[in-house]
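Researcher: Going back to the complex we discussed earlier. I've cleaned up the inputs and rechecked each line, so this should be the final set. Can you rerun the prediction on the complete assembly and write out the structure?
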Amino acid sequence: MKYIKHVRGSITLLFSMLIIVSVIYPFATAYISTYVYHSPYSNVPVIYHNGTAIGSPDMVENFTQPWFFHPRPSMTDYFSLSSNSSSNYGPVSPVLYNFTLQLVKKYYGGYISFNNTTTTIPINMVSYSSSGVDPDITILSALIQIPRISHYSGIPQKDLLSMVTNNTVAPFLTVVGIPYVNIVTLNTYIYDIMQNAQ
Amino acid sequence: MIYSQYISILLTFLVLAILIPIIGRYIADVYQEKTTILDVLFYPVEAWIYKLIGTDSKKSMDWKEYTVALVLTNITFGIFAFLILTQQGGLPLNYFNSPDMSFRLAFHTSASYLTNTDFQHFNPVTQISMFSEMFAIMLLMFVSSATGLVVAVSLIRGIKNSNGKIGNFYIDFVRSITRILLPFSILTTFLLVFMGVPDTLTPYIILHPVTGGSSIMPLGLNAAHTSIELLGTNGGSYINGGNSNPLSDPSNATIFLETLMMLLFPFSLIFAYGEMIKKKSESFVLFIVTFGLLLFAVLSVVNIEMQGNVMLSTIPHLSMSSGNFVGKDTRFGVVYGSFAQTVSVYTNTGAQFVNIDTMLPGSQIFLLFGMFIQAVPGGIGTGFTYLLLYLLLSVFLGGLMVGRTPEYIGKKIGVKEIKYTSLALIVHPILIITPFVIALLFNPFGSVTYSPHNLTELLYEFTSEAANNGSSMTLNDNNAFYNIAGGIIMLLSRFIPIVATLAIAGSLSNKKSLPERGGSMRTDSITFALYLIGVIIILGALMFLPVIVIGPLRDYLRLSHYG
Amino acid sequence: MDNRKKGLSHLHGNLKTIIKLAFVESVVKFDPRKLWKNPVMFVIFIYTLYVFFVTLDPYLFRDVVNISNFSRIYYIEITIILFATIWFANLAEAIAEAQGRAQADSLRSMKSEIVATLYDPKTSTEKKIFSKDLKYNDVIIVRENEPIPKDGEIIDGSALIDESMITGESQAVMKESGGDKTSVTGATIVRSGTIKVRVTEKPGESFLDRMIALVESSKRQKTPNEIALNVVLAILTFIMVFVILTLVYIEIALSIEIDIATMVALLVCLAPTTIGGLLSAIGIAGITRVAKVNVIAKSGKAVEAAGDVDVLILDKTGTITVGNRIATEFVPTKNYKMEDLLYNVVIASIYDTTPEGKSIIKIAYKRGIKVDTKNMGELQKIPFSPQTRYSGIIMPDGTRIIKGSVDAIEKETGYIPADLHMKSKEVADQGATPLLISRNKEVIGLIVMKDVIKPGIRERLRELKVMGIKTVMCTGDNRLTARFIAKDSGVDEYIAEAKPEDKLTVTKKYQAKGMLTAMTGDGTNDSPALSQADVGLAMNSGTPAAKEAANMVDLDSDPTKLIEVVAIGKQLLITRGALTTFSITNDVAKYFAILPAMFFMIANLTSLNVMHLASPQSAILSAVIFNAITIPILIPFAIKGISYTPASATQLLRQNVIFFGFGGVLTAFIGIKIIDIIITTGSVGHVIAISYYILKVMLALIGVKI
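Model: Rerun complete. Updated structure for the full complex:
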């Protein structure tokens, strides 16, 4: 057994690596991250309202109230802890077709009833995301919702419009990705305005 | 608008092109034990480890000894992780009260992370405690990446050396972690934290949203995990929804960084190769081959996705102008999301940036093809290894075609090399198709008819496992069959090629290195690069066309009927 | 070239016999024990038998045959084509074998049974014995006009030997004991003189016997390259069997009707049958092609090694230059006329029987001089000696006419006229050799002796250079001459004033650099170098030691052959590589023919039918027929070798990939489409007519008219 010495070698390797990558690496990076940003949550954006954490732009809630911007549909019920995060519909599946058709009808109905000026529903608004908690929508998806939100919240359409334009996130380095708005941010503004109005 | 998005792909590759020669040289320096800037920091640590291991740090091993050390080490780490996972309920830092993993799930999980597959048959938030995350998951992610690297490096040494030795496993392994994986992971962890990815020992934060109720936002070691996950082409994210979850990848800046992270080491290794054998032109050819094929795949996938789903476009009042947004997060856009996903699959990372299940059949074919080949650029170390295996086979046939006994970098390619190369390459289709057929015969879908899409999902599952990729189409796969079959596939498809590769390295290292002579076939010409591309495509097509036909191709044809 | 044709002309008449023999042999080769040696064909054979049994009784194979739809005609067709595929492969091998054997036989036919005279040195007695009973080391006596019964070495005596039956060279050659001209070949005839010959040939181990073993597939040792390629092919076949096997189960799972004939058809199409069928034929034919240039290779490996050679070590004399130097110019000194010079030149060279001396006389006569030597009386010969370095004549009147090198004549006469001194320098500078003629210590003039580069050799050397092969010229000449000839002929390097040992040194030097070397040689001195070199080509005229040390023997004793052998070695490998590529790229098109046909019932895969083949059955039949007939169509290429123009490795790769890679895809698409049109629209008569023409063209390509 000339190779028996490698048993010792591999066990030593296990313990030394445990110290380096399982202890030092995670503890050190976590410690420095929380220390630098003076927060136990490191650098995650959290929105506070009167001292309570009410949300994060990194996690969407199921905003169903008509005066909020609605998120894209979610397979996981907008819940980050559930496992099955995406749809099981194949790209040629009739289920996908019917699902999309129903949503288009719903939003298009909204367009008719609120005298919207757009004529089509963007695919972004009627499709599942990959994460199931996509907090962002495209500008077009935001715009088609403005008449409805304005109607229910009482905020003038042009204020909502400028809210959308002011909060548009541009593509990184002007080319990576597409312009979008974060609906958690937008809805927090709406929530604030409506709270103040009361 | 659309074209400006295509520029984003170009931009990514541009940054990559600047980085890889530099990192490549650094990697070469690390394995040739030249002085590097991190010596001061790590020499004492390494010396201490070598002393404990008891290996003479100067002693180079032959391939058999190297293989024994590598396999034993992997077994030790695998068993350790398995034990941690099965006992995690009683171990500390278990904030979500994750139960002990069942033996079969723990087997699949430890096999998955040990083999750089990182296929998840579990919910990463609720079924993995923070202790398991550190002592099983992160540990194995480092180990599997390092193992991939050392195999590639020992093959390079086999090509270079003539003394029958291919290096010292322990030194290679330790240096892979301390000099390459760890420093870069720390760097990217801080970059990700800066961009808003959480990295903290606080497990979660409870939110009280304005819509009522409360919800839990998981935090934890996301950035540290994501760093080694992507740099080591592991995949298998910290949180549900993979890297498309805004907590792992919050913005269009992070996806840019994360795409680069996946590409960094597989491509750098190609340049490290040129540095190590002192023939940079060889690196360029391999780069052209891998990059050319990757670029073709990326542009094809992005194009297909941008055209949108023809079936859905028949719905009135629906605008498809932004492409196939189904299963893609808004902030990435269809172009960059599809790009990142293609990169993720082609680097065998398998991290989820967009949902593969809802990508169009044409894209699915391209993604499957990337996993069939595994070398464009493939996983860390393994991709490069496969590339060299394809190259050896091409050199063999090409050498005959120019009328000479085939040789590569002065090493004659003989029966032994060809045997092991073929062995390493045929393991792959066998391990994909056999379980696929078994699964079909035992009908895991119960009464469900075999729709082309279901067949694609099934094929994708096994392809992903056999390619040690880890990406998945949503298949309900946490059951005894998929756990055990998957675990076995991943282990076999990882370690059979590794041992075969080391055997090739051993055989080459015993051959004397011939100088470049006038009549030898040059492997650093554009002609050879194109020829290599041809060999890779034809080999892949011959083996996999039938299964492509019954799955995604039928979907593709079905979809084109709508048009 | 002419010699070769003359020597083997009777072979052409044998081609029909070759084909006839091959047809018989190709049937014998269906013996599974023989097929087993070819993994690709063996697998195909097993599956062919399977389909055959299904055809006989489909009810026994209900699982894999759709009984209700069973078409026996279709099954019979498939079975026939599959058997034809294997038969074609057998045929290829059999033709190559038969041709090789015919080649060997033609060389051996001269060695028919003859009565030899066995000599017992102890008792000095003679005994008549059949040549077949001669043993190694027996001593025989061969007298005038007797054939030499076996290969051997002259131990006593000298003789003029007629070797025309082997080399085609009509002029008899002088052989004698001692020195480098001792070797005699069996079947050559002594024209004058009596020699004692020690038999050096062991029964069954002559070079010819060894060559015959190389062309018989059953005894043939495969070369490492061939084994490696066989591994690749076996693995490809294995993968295809695996893919098809799983496809059967996929069809079961998807409840698609299985049709085993189609499955086997797909397997046969996808397995590398083309190259699998031709592989051993290519190897055998390589040896035969070497034999056709009258070179006998002792192993297949030696032929392949010739293709790999990096450095050719060439003897100047006989390889680069025409045998010997010839006189090209005569320069008298100021005081003499040309006639005087020519007259003295002729007289001085009368007894000079060296080729150089003969050339001098010949050329002097051409210049119009007439010398009547008969009436000159007794001429006394001054023979050439290495010490004096001159030769000449003493005339009856005591006049001393000598011819020699400049130094030697200067020593003789004590002076050199100034004009000749200049001229001799000039001549030497141009790589030629000046010879001076003196008469009674008075210098008369100068002869310019020049090496003449063999016609065509410059082109050959240029080709070698293009292919990246380095050439080194060995010569006993001085540096100046060597350099001039090297430059003139295009040799890369030269070794001047070379001693026989130098060849060994040069070989070792290049081998130490990792290069493969090839060289020729004939003398015993050469044998260490011949055995050291990776390819050693011995001249048949050389000593048995040299022939034993080398791995090839040239019956014509023409050192230029080395270049030809290198080309044949390369061609052998190229043929293998190119046909493998062709075979594999063919598969792409076959997939497009068969897959849509196979899955036509489950989905709208019809759009995959890019070739618009008439029906699923015709598509499959066309693919299988195409697969089968590529083998016989390629037999001429396998036998004759793929022709190639010398080019750099990268250019060769590009050419061959384009021609055989892309060509392979294209040919298959076109071929399958054409076959599909023929079998769907044509009658049986058409099919037969077309097959006949294909056969005719194929046979015409290897030289048979029917």
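Model: Worth noting: Chain B has one domain: 37-182+285-560.
Researcher: Good, that matches what I expected from the previous run.
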